[in-house]
Amino acid sequence: MLATRDGNITHVIVGDANGIFIPELENYAIGRKALRGLRLIHTHLKDEPLNNEDITDLALLRFDMIAAISIKDGLPYNIYTAYLMPAGFEKKYEITNSNFYRFDLNFRDFINSLEEEMDRSRVIDQKDKRERAILVSASTKPKYEMEESMDELQELAQSSDIVVLNTIIQRLKEINPKLLLGEGKLKEIIINAMDNGATLLVFDQDLTPSQMRAIAETTELKVIDRSQLILDIFARRAYSRDGKVQVELAQLKYTLPRLTGKGSAMSRLMGGIGGRGPGEMKLEIDRRRIRDRISRLEKELKILSEARKQRKHKRLAVGIPIVSIIGYTNAGKSTLLNALTNSTTFVEDKMFATLDTASRRLRFPKEREVIITDTVGFIRDLPKDLMTAFKSTLEELADADLLIHLIDIANPRFEQQIESVENILDELKLKDKQRIMVFNKTDKVSSDTISNVLPRYDAVAVSAINPGTFYPMLQSIENHIWESNNPTHFTEQVKA
């Protein structure tokens, strides 16, 4: 049976010789509290101590205490108890045993003292409602690649306003098709997460629908993968109708194949669409609604696409050249656009701070001007559904007369970021589009670094926060667009 701290019986469970089935305990949530607030009391038909399954249930389900009463001659004989120890102790749990009739414990005082000690080691601000996450990377890739990817995952988590408690990197000999990593290691990670007060597990690798379900069924923590994290960021940052439609479409396409099964496992997936229903009927209704919604969004996206084409034709009729700024997320594209055109596009030092396309006019000498456009940032392994949804927007790059590939020279992974951007351009069939490479954030690196990097890429350098560094880039833009053999000297700040 299960009992509260007040001694009220919440569940009476009948099992068999092989064990008992513990029901869903959604009314006694875990995460911010160190313990669930329930104790499990069950019987052992023989005089046997607590076994590994008992201890695993104690750790994973965060019971206040687990007790097994052994039976002899049809009467209670011994009582075996176990409880979790606070984080930082050498022992993870404590086991005791006593004759059933001599067992004496002031449970209320004991459990209050234990939880108070646990809370001290967890240091959780109960007023802080942000998700608290353990980031997990499990892959067969070389460890240095996993570490680089984990650094990026931490940046993504920060952009999604998640508190990162710990990161775990597990290099695998082979991928477990069911759980991604071994069952023992997964349970160890889950127990570590709950010891630290985590509410969320974030996997750097994209999980298959079956892996997502299997992991979610192992824990009551929310479970998401890299793609879901990126989708969450996009959902937070999309403000235009175009952006909102594309993000919602990507989210629904991602969710649909994962919308299976009963119970609360699906409700623990971020978003949890359809996971709150009592059975298959509710799930089938949700599936149908999602398919209908996807169909409507795709039609709306076509209408928005037609509107973009009309705007494009107007620009082409005017004959003003188009320059598009592309690059890895957080390379400084919006900051550069603002500095070039004296505009106020939203800027923040986070990945995907801006998603919506912004276009401004940039005036050059000799009464010439261009339309300069800031596009959504690129990222490695952009979720397939997002790539598909944003393809119509990114295809506008095909109409650009010139691409400015902006690169964060201060980022130690800038070479990999260049490769990711090139791969996306190749996928969009824009690999041959005329472009110049511009290294940004030169104020954060040494002059030796700049002089060594620029010749390798035939690039120019700027600091987007210092317009005085823009001349080489502006000269290069002018030469590429108007094929000027006589460079013009910019003697005043470029104005919109």
Which features does this protein show?
about 500 residues, alpha/beta, 4 domains, 6-stranded mixed beta sheet, 13 helices, disordered C terminus
What does this structure look like?
The chain is an alpha/beta fold and 496 residues long. The chain has 4 domains: 2-122, no CATH class; 132-234, 3-Layer(aba) Sandwich (Rossmann fold), CATH 3.40.50; 238-308, no CATH class; 320-482, 3-Layer(aba) Sandwich (Rossmann fold), CATH 3.40.50.300. The protein contains 13 helices and 16 strands. The strands form 3 sheets. The chain has a 6-stranded mixed β-sheet with strand order 2-1-3-4-5-6, covered by helices on one side. Helix 3 links the parallel strand 7 and strand 8. It is elongated.
Q: Tell me, briefly, the overall form.
A: elongated
Our Rg estimate from Cα atoms comes to: 29 Å
How many domains in all? 4
Task: Count the E strands.
Answer: 16
Q: Could you report the average pLDDT, rounded to the nearest whole number?
A: 83
- Output the strand order for the largest sheet: 2-1-3-4-5-6
